[in-house]
């Protein structure tokens, strides 16, 4: 019974999270800093993609502080099971000086699942003010025979 309640709570929170835009998912006091540090946002939906596709998305990360910033960890949620997405992340560099920009490339391997799946990629950042963890929410719908609409139809 407890498992069912936890699963329902998780699904409800995910649906609520996905029904909001990026700005409403971040507290007001954090928005300017988050937009500056992550100009491409923290959420991406690849939509419907053919099974077997390697989907890639690059997120820019900007060091907005006056001190160096170090990326100490990039890891996926690793949930496993039927709801998991095959998600991988890699940084082009792990130390960003003030005002430098790095790139986080996120790859979804649709050979490993069919249907709509989502996952979380965690990015851990160390600065002179301490350690912060950021979550990138990624979704893709791997379809065996996608129906591709022609533009304008």
Topology summary:
Blueprint: H1 2-18, H2 31-37, E1 43-50, E2 54-62, E3 69-76, E4 87-91, E5 95-96, E6 101-109, E7 115-127, E8 130-143
Parallel strand pairs: 1-8
Antiparallel strand pairs: 2-6, 3-5, 3-7, 4-6, 7-8
Report on the biggest sheet: 5 strands, mixed
Shape: elongated
Oligomer: single chain
Structural class: alpha+beta
**Average of per-residue pLDDT values:** 77
Helical proportion, percent range: 10-25%
Distance between the termini: 47 Å
**Unreliable runs:** 3-30, 148-153
Q: Give the C-alpha Rg.
A: 17 Å
Strand order of the largest sheet: 1-8-7-3-5
Strand content: 35-45%
Number of strands: 8
Please count the helical segments.
2
What's the order of the H and E elements?
HHEEEEEEEE
Short description:
This protein is an alpha+beta fold and 153 residues long.
Structure description:
Helix content is 16%, strand content 44%. It has helices at 2-18, 31-37, and strands at residues 43-50, 54-62, 69-76, 87-91, 95-96, 101-109, 115-127, 130-143. Strands 1-8-7-3-5 form a 5-stranded mixed beta sheet, with no helix packed on it. A 3-stranded antiparallel beta sheet has the order 2-6-4, with no helix packed on it. Strand 7 and strand 8 form a beta hairpin. The longest helix has 17 residues, at 2-18. The radius of gyration is 17 Å and the shape is elongated. 14% of the residues are buried.
